[in-house]
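Marked as duplicate of an earlier ticket. Keeping the data here for the record.
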Amino acid sequence: MKKILLFILIFNLSYTFAQSDFDLFVESKIFEDKGKIDTSIYLISHAISISPEQIYLLHRGQLYFKSKKYNEALNDFILLKDSNNNEIDYKIACCYAALDNFDETDIWLRKYLNLNNKLPSNVIKSEAIFSKFKTTTQWTEIWNKNWYSNYENYISEMCYLYSKGLYSEIFDVVDSALKYFPEKDELWLWRAKAFKFGNNPKEEMISLDKALKINSTRVDILLIRANLLRKDGKSKKAIVDYSSALEIQPWNVKLFKERGISKIESYDYNGAIVDFLKYFSYDINDGSALYYAGHAAFLKGDYKKAIELFTNAIKLESNLVECYFERGRCYLDLLNYETAFTDFCMAIDLKPNNGEIFCFRGLSYFGLKNKLGACHDWQKAKTLEYPKAEEYLLRFCSDLK
């Protein structure tokens, strides 16, 4: 047993070191999303050992910061202090504050406040990490100076209104700000948020379009617009936005899943399968990625491929009811009624109040020449308000009492 465990450990280490720095970075991001911060740090550290890219150091610094390992985070952030990233100065100030080094906190917070596009003052003043620093005269002296431009004051006011849930009041502030700063993409984003609160998707879209015309590299805005386009049934246009976002952030592989879903909605099933399997190549424990790939194969009529993908998804996540249900439908279409019946039973065990599953199990019963079982399931499906069941009851069960 010990030999087997040793072999697995050596294999995993060999696999990790054989990966490219980019692959390690992507997997680090995936493990971060799953809340496995130590594993994420381990992976990004190996990426840095291969190639100490600034984006890798920033990611590791943020992970250390999230883990409250402030000395380690500070070491990474200091290496990036000349990278022209406003966020770095603020993070350095936060680290020093957490380490009770208030002289350095004062220096770096002032550096940050001298920059443009900084956090609103109310956000900084409410930051818990500065709680001890707030008791010093240095903190008071910092805020004796007005660090903020008129534009930044508008942003600060909108952030405050948003935090208080006063969404309707944001309209007036953003409209006033846009009179003076019409070329600020952030203001157009706030305008879009305001119209989202007001349930006006048309004006929300106009605002997002304007923001992206000013700054086409804003991935956050691209993704908001992509989601809005999908809600409006314009999945092909959403695909363009997801693709643009991936070009800007190729490490953001979650977007392959989002784009894959949009491709399904656009009937590009082959493209969808490629995207889901691309994502799965980075997260080999995500059964849902295989489910979606199987779903695309099912929709295009490639039942054997769909069955293969659903089966592999179930091996990873045995509670994926959609996999059992759709694999059952594949077997049903292939006239393999017995196996279809088994899958529908599994799906019902996981989701016992779904009329559609009962209706399809009724079809497998019927294929097995068990009319009584079929009619019982169709009656159950009708009770659960699945509309198709009524048709089967009238066609095949009218002679049964």
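See parent ticket for discussion. Residues 1-17 have pLDDT under 50 and may be disordered.
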